[in-house]
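Hey team,

Filing this mostly as a record. A colleague (T.K.) asked me to run one chain through the structure pipeline before their review meeting, and I want the input and output archived in the tracker in case anyone asks later how it was produced. No errors, nothing strange. Just documentation.

Input sequence:
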Amino acid sequence: MTKRKVFISYRRDDAAGFAHAIHDRLVENLPKEQVFMDVVGIEPGADFVEKLKSTVNQCSVLLALIGKRWFGEDNGGRPRIHDPNDWVRAEVSTAIQRGVRVIPVLLDGATMPATESLPEDLRPLTRMNAMDVRGSRLNADVWDLTGSTITALGGKWPPDEPGGKIYSVLAGIYALFAGAVVLLVMFGSMFTQEVGLPTLLGTVVFVLNAVLLLRLPVHSWVRTISRHKALKLGSLIHLAGFAAMGIGSTDVEGAMVIFFGIVPAATLFLASFAMRRVVRN
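Output structure:
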């Protein structure tokens, strides 16, 4: 994928917010120079027209972001998409003529334009399989779009994250820890006095944290969170769970605080920092 680029085509008064969200996710998974968006990709003082032309000619995938105002409107109230000098039209039609993979992206309930409503050079767009990106599930939809884009470039999705084996070991150990806590609480309720609310609350937090670290597909947000972010968030959740479990307890010793509270949280946080450094390098 060394020379292949992604071009994000959009109309600023129609899809600027979505374009930035998609751009930011793409550059998390691709070299920055492979993702082009006009605001980000054009240097101050550069020829805007020539830069757009040359970049469209180099791209391998074009994302055509289509919102409800994608047609645009000129001063006379006519659709700008029918103007031969409209740059959204020029970007998409150039990509179509060159045989570039064009992925229509329908934003927030927008529908594919009718064939007869488009100029002749854009009509092939209606035969291309579109993807939806909705504000109500933006993270999950942009994740899926990123995967389709990288696959179209010839890459692997989901990518192998650096430090994946270390992450798997830590997540597995934490899952065992959470399971052990559940068993101890169950045995305690069977053979000793009634388990208090703080203990139950802390146990639930540990189990939920294990679900997060294992990235089980219980919710789209869990599925799309990166590993280093999961570790960082997991360290904070663990501290919260341990604090909840210790509320009202008078027999919590310093050694317990260190070995069952601070050490696991610090391990997760330091692993998060290490993975982040590896990803950046």
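Quick notes for T.K.: The beta strands are 5-9, 35-36, 59-66, 101-107, 131-133. The chain has two domains: 5-152, 164-280.
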